[in-house]
């Protein structure tokens, strides 16, 4: 009888699982209203530029040059950047859950996230992610972004584990499916309660 590999590692997304998303449509809508930006122009420029920022090809200032400060604005770059940072909020129950499971079962935790460098670094520091995660496989650090399967391969190589040893927490169904295609055990995160129930099925209480 084939023995099921023991889970040694958790891969987890940040936005939508441990924290709110870094710079999503809701945050941009708040910025458009607060700073009186042109909605259509801002969204079009964002969508043409943001993927390039998330894979680390441009800086946050270059992103802002293209999306916000391509013309003179009555507010400062510093104020706008701080507004972006302030949109990040923690999900304390999820942070506590993963911290508890990691300590109880001696697991490794790897963050696997699509985020621009400056936003990722701010969020990692602000919410003490170093206390939870052993590795940070962030799109802007490794120059691949989900759903590219190579970002999962980089995470596996960095953690030095086989796919069968990993449970992956992710709120987007497509990304779970891509991970599962590599043999990683996916867990679609919806909320704290259902994730607790799903983790129990993997033997984590």
Could you please describe the fold and organization of this structure?
- The protein contains ten helices and five strands, in the order βαααααβαβααβαβα.
- It has 205 residues and is of the alpha/beta class.
- Strands 3-2-1-4-5 form a five-stranded parallel β-sheet, with helices on both faces.
- Helix 2 packs antiparallel against helix 3 (60-67).
- It starts with 8 loop residues before the first strand and ends with a helix.
- The relative contact order is 0.18.
- The model has no long low-confidence stretch (mean pLDDT 96).
Mean pLDDT: 96
Which bin fits the share of residues in helices?
Answer: 40-55%
Outline type: elongated
Largest sheet strand order: 3-2-1-4-5
User: What is the CATH class of the largest domain?
Assistant: Alpha Beta
The DSSP helix count reads: 10
Kindly estimate the percentage of residues that lie in beta strands according to DSSP: 5-15%
CATH fold descriptor of the largest domain: Rossmann fold
Number of domains: 2
Distance between the termini: 26 Å
Q: Report low-confidence residues grouped into runs of 5 or more.
A: none
Could you state the CATH homologous superfamily of the largest domain? HAD superfamily/HAD-like
Biggest sheet details: 5 strands, parallel
Q: Name the structural class.
A: alpha/beta
Q: How many strands in all?
A: 5
Spell the H/E element sequence.
EHHHHHEHEHHEHEH
Label the CATH architecture of the largest domain.
3-Layer(aba) Sandwich
Rg on CA atoms, Å: 18 Å
